[in-house]
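Exam prep: given the inputs below (a chain plus zinc ion), describe the expected output before reading on.
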Amino acid sequence: MALTKCPECQSEVSDQALICPKCGFPLEKETSPESDVNKIVEEKIQTIQLTGKKWKRMKLIFVPMFIFGPFLSLSSLFVFLFFGVELFIVGFLLGGILFFVGLIGTIIASFGAWWHYR
Ligand SMILES: [Zn+2]
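Solution:
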């Protein structure tokens, strides 16, 4: 908490104080105006909320990918039984890629959300 000088009586008062505790002089205009501070805080909250939504949307895309990926890889084992090895390899690789992209995306989204909510 910083100290500021009262413009009326010159005594040192907290810059958080709205009025001088000694003479009662209103200090809000001398320190940073409260409305401006509120505006900055509001804008920051809005940015955080918007960023939060962005990370959530990112998770919404990547989490199903990394859940669905292993399923695709597993189901390609059945494809192998009926359709041969080529489709199995394609399915297995696609499942693996989905899994890894989904996993990495989920980690990035989680980290991003944590970074902005901290
Ligand atoms: Zn004063």
